[in-house]
UniProtKB/TrEMBL annotation:
It comes from the Bacteria. Residues 167-228 form the ANTAR domain. Keywords: Transcription, Transcription regulation. InterPro entries: ANTAR (IPR005561), GAF (IPR003018), GAF-like_dom_sf (IPR029016), GAF_ANTAR (IPR012074), WH-like_DNA-bd_sf (IPR036388). This is ANTAR domain-containing protein. It comes from Mycolicibacterium mucogenicum (Mycobacterium mucogenicum). The lineage of its organism: Bacteria, Bacillati, Actinomycetota, Actinomycetes, Mycobacteriales. Pfam families: ANTAR, GAF_2. GO terms for molecular function: RNA binding.
Amino acid sequence: MTGTSFGSSSGRGQRLVDAAGGSDTCAATHEAILQRMADHAVREIPGAKYAGVTTAGFPAQLDTVVMTHSYAAVVDAIQQYRHQGPFLSAAWKRDVLRVNDLEADERWPAYRRDVLRSTPIRTVLSFRLFTTARSVGALMIYANEPNAFDRHAEEIGYVVATHTALAVGGAQPRDRVRHVLDNWDVVTQAKSVLMEQFQVGSSEAFQMLKRLSLSSSNDLLRLSQCVIDKARQL
């Protein structure tokens, strides 16, 4: 499997900032930014082999905006032709969707059959980037092995997708996002606190942090530190 894991090393956050356009995102086109972020996703998300950004209008007309390999476009063409698949099912309704083993997944039989015949892809991870009244976009990550993505890969993918959406949307909190990535151990500690307090799994704890971050207008790192500090006071 390709990709590296995020930890607390200071270089990884900077790589994400550089992928989004360095210090002058406005000078780059949206497509160029998306291409860099797709390339970056393959390098940084553990298990990732291919990536692409897919958009759809209403009614669903899929467009593979950028890709790291033609397989991403093949998968989108199959979804368009068959009117079924993970992007069409998830992008309008869910932030994240993971298909652990395409051979064993029975949700989209025609899509599954064609993808297995046409590509080596076995695992799919989808992150919604934006939704409007008539359009939706997602960062799509693929792997050739079944069960290629674990919860850690999903969490890192969420951070990459969030920064992609911010960069393309014109918001540029680069220092803040880089700081979160370079101090990911704080998020991991906060997850452990929530897992123990609420008897939930790692994925559920991370979802709790995300929801609390959005509802409180605090970034993920600041909120995580608050969770840790409060636990120490008990």
